[in-house]
Amino acid sequence: MAATKQDGGALAALMKAALALPVLAVPMRSGAAETGEIGFSVLGYKERDLMKITEPVLWTRFSFAETWEFRASILMDIITGASPRVVSNQGGTPVQTITGASITDRRKGADAKLTKRLGDFTFSASRTISDEVDYDSRAFGLEATWDLNQKLTTLTAGYGKANDRVGSRDNPQLHERRDTKEYLIGVTQVLSPLAIVQSSLQFSRGDGYYNDPYKITFTFPPPGSEGIPQLAADVRPGSRDSLAWLTRYRQHVPASKGTLQAEYRFFRDDWGIRAHTLEAAWEQEINEAWSVRPALRYYTQSAADFYSPVIPTPRPAVLSSDQRLSAFGGLSPSVRGIWRHDSGVLVEGTVGYYYNAKDLRLGGDGSSAFNTLRAWYVFGSIIKEF
Fold first, then answer.
1. Judging by DSSP bridges, how do beta strands 216-219 and 84-88 pair with one another?
2. Which residues pair with 114 in a beta bridge?
3. Backbone torsions φ then ψ of 56, nearest 5 degrees
4. pLDDT for 11 beyond 70
5. Dihedral pair phi/psi, residue 97, rounded to 5°
6. Would you say domain 2-385 falls under CATH 1.10.10.10?
7. 314 Cβ contact partners less than 8 Å away, ≥ 6 residues apart
């Protein structure tokens, strides 16, 4: 359901991060025996009094013919709960209001990626599909890497394109499109046998339908004044340009058998949003089989230029009261446990918590109408090498 599409996007990002390979990934070994793995994961996400999402994922990865690698996954989002649809100031202060019946939805997705290594160069092509009742997406990607300096430096370039189709359960006549192109450049540098840094820039250009057909702004005039309540649908610009810069650093400390993991991401777009994400984690080896990884993530963003929890006068042509476009900040602590067995089985479990609030925005000047979000998530996976 499109009312939860941006929530689903955040969940997809969370799952992608949970499944991502370490920055210091083991390269494909030329001439090595055919190897691979198969895995199953489940991600559970529960907002306080709102959405509940369960996402099982099955994936596989294997190399063959010495220089080829294939990856594929299938997943399903199972979404239940309630979603805020109206922002109203009827009580004097703008608040989100849950209206309508509870949401029940299913999203099915699959992706595949084929990689070929030619000496110091690697070329990949990928395909992704995603279907739900009122939102379908088709995307493909191309990526190339070049190993330099005896494989201590790796340059990366990528291109992707997505073609999405937006509908609405409330309006069967709605069939809009959104097309997005993405470009990526990056570098990975081995600093020492114990340290590595990775940095990338990603530019995205989107055109098409960005409105949320389920969101409404309902504004009452001040008490004692003339006028009637106004109702406005969610209307956003017909394009969006964004730039994201991500830097990761890993430093292993042999004396303590631990690894420092730090990440910083800066995001900006032409809607006026500026966002910063900082995460610090420490992966501690307990013994040959067990390790634990506590982490803390901080997020802060400014509001979109057209965000407003009430309808201004004069009424603008572009307006959204969706609080995901407002100014706020958030903290997310988590802890991950990992168990490895000599047979090639790896079991992993993560528990995390989201706390988003207006007062957590950097500088403390978040949007006054932001309703605090509290949510738990759990992630578990089992992987078998073969």
1. parallel
2. 70, 125
3. -85, 145
4. no
5. -125, 130
6. no
7. none
Quick one: 251 exposed, middle or buried, by C-beta within 10 A (0-12, 13-18, 19+)? middle
Q: What's the maximum distance between 2 C-alpha atoms anywhere in the chain?
A: 81
Contact 358, 328 (CB under 8 A): yes
Phi, psi for residue 61 in degrees, rounded to 5: -145, 135
Residue whose C-alpha is closest to residue 184's, from 220, 219, 145 = 145
Residues pairing with 193 in the sheet? none
Locate 121 and state its tokens: 């160069």
- Other C-beta atoms lying within 10 Å of the C-beta of residue 9: 11
Sign of torsion, CA 355 304 236 306?
positive
Per-residue pLDDT of 107-120, as tens digits, reads 999 999 999 999 99
Q: Which two tokens stand for residue 273?
A: 């949003």
Exposure string (b/e) for 326-348, b if CB count within 10 Å is 16 or more? bbbbbebebebebeeeeeeeeeb
How confident is the model over 229-277, as pLDDT tens digits? Answer: 999 999 999 999 999 999 999 999 999 999 999 999 999 999 999 999 9
Which residue type, as a one-letter code, is found at position 274?
A: R
Quote the tokens at residue 295.
């982490």
Check if the beta carbon of residue 56 is closer than 8 Å to that of residue 73.
no
Residue written as token pair 């993991």:
261
Compute the Cα dihedral for 45, 51, 52, 53 and give only its sign: negative
User: Is 0.85 topped by the overall pTM?
Assistant: yes
Strands, E assignment, the chain: 36-47, 52-64, 68-81, 84-88, 95-98, 103-118, 121-132, 135-148, 153-166, 176-192, 195-208, 216-219, 230-233, 239-253, 258-269, 274-285, 290-301, 328-340, 345-357, 373-385
Rounded distance, CA 206 to CA 204, Å? 7
Which residues, listed in sequence order, are joined to residue 64 by a DSSP beta bridge? 68
Which tokens hold the place of 265? 């991401």
DSSP 3-state of 77? strand
Neighbours of 314 (CB within 10 A): 6
Sheet-wide strand order for 216-219: 95-98, 84-88, 216-219, 230-233
- At 363 the pLDDT is 87
* Selection from 115, 152, 124, 144 nearest residue 24 by Cα: 152
Record the tokens describing residue 202, joined without a space.
Answer: 């990603």
